[in-house]
Amino acid sequence: MPRRLVVVLLAAVLAGLSAAGAAPARDPNVAALQVGLRAHGLYHGPVDGLAGVRTLAAVRRLGGDGLFGRRTLHRLGKFARHPLGSRPVLDGTVGWDAAAIQFMLAWHGFPSATFDGAFGSHSDRALRRFERWAGLPQDGVAGPAVLAALQRPPATCPIALRPPLGTPYTDTFGPRGARFHTGIDYPAPRGTPVGAAATGRVSWAGNLGGGWGKVVTLQHPHGVATMYAHLSRVLVSVGMHVTVGERIGLVGATGDATGPHVHFEVRVRGAAVDPLTGLS
Questions:
Q1: Cα(55)–Cα(60) distance, integer angstroms
Q2: What is the DSSP string of 182-215?
Q3: Class assignment of domain 174-277?
């Protein structure tokens, strides 16, 4: 694809994203740029879609002429050949558009391992889960219909939640390096009681693979589920009905945890959403 056409297409996609109401502060094209800069060893910050100081400095080290300038894209090589929306993205696609789709899927609650611009099996599974969630054909092809759905605002929590602990939270929902953190973390001393964020039914209580450690999951109205991970002890069993604030476990560091804390996650019909949209 001619470099001039790439620039024109990229500008059109950026304008379309803005018109569709996507948050300008979290630009999937900036995220794709960051992925390309990381691949060149020039950027080591988070893939967050924010054109901050570190991103601009990396572009200068690349010898580019602005975020999406012709020289910038040229120096990124084949990676920047296909802007977002210029072709369908599917298993095996590599490049700028694949990185942007990975970023958009993550913000809609379907992250896929790392943001690397290589659309492999993890990304394919994430895409198919999103297609099912959005009511689209589950063909694993991110074409115009998928892109239009991804340009809509991400889902939010439709019910009111109470914080599971009274301690301040630290890591929030969003990018963490080249990966995506799908919840918020509450550091607290080991053994601190953890309360249910809302009234619901226990659907999981025990060890869970994938580094989660001891986990409790609760089901709530409107397709909402809350998850409490890395517990030292589980105080409930599957099928129990619990009320908001009721003790369901104790803080721990089980699974892949560097210290005692609770990883608190909220899902709506299977999509991870920012817990802060429901917490009061």
A1: 9
A2: -SEEEE--TT-EEE-SSSEEEEEEEEETTTTEEE
A3: mainly beta
Digit-coded pLDDT (tens) for 124-141: 999 999 999 999 999 999
Rounded distance between C-alpha atoms, residue 83 and residue 98, angstroms: 9
| Stretch (H or E) spanning 228 | strand 224-234
Determine the Cα–Cα distance for residues 27 and 48; give it in Å rounded to an integer: 8
Residue 95 burial (CB < 10 Å; 0-12/13-18/19+)?
A: buried
Q: How many helices (H) and strands (E) does the chain have?
A: 7, 13
| Domain(s) of CATH 2.70.70.10: residues in the chain | 174-277
Read off the amino acid at residue 9.
L
pLDDT of residue 1: 52
State the fold for domain 3-150: Muramoyl-pentapeptide Carboxypeptidase; domain 1 (1.10.101)
Integer angstrom CA distances of residue 181 from 34, 185, 200, 257: 18, 10, 24, 13
Which residue from 80, 79, 84 is spatially nearest to 142, judged by alpha carbons? 84
Nearest CA among 26, 78, 84 for reference residue 55: 26
Per-residue pLDDT reduced to its tens digit, 188-226: 999 999 999 999 999 999 999 889 999 999 999 999 999
For CATH 1.10.101.10, the residue range(s) in the chain are 3-150
Q: Would you say 219 and 203 are in contact if contact means Cβ atoms under 8 Å apart?
A: yes
pLDDT tens, 58-78? 999 999 999 999 999 999 999
Mutual orientation of helices 96-107 and 121-134 as an angle, nearest 10°? 50
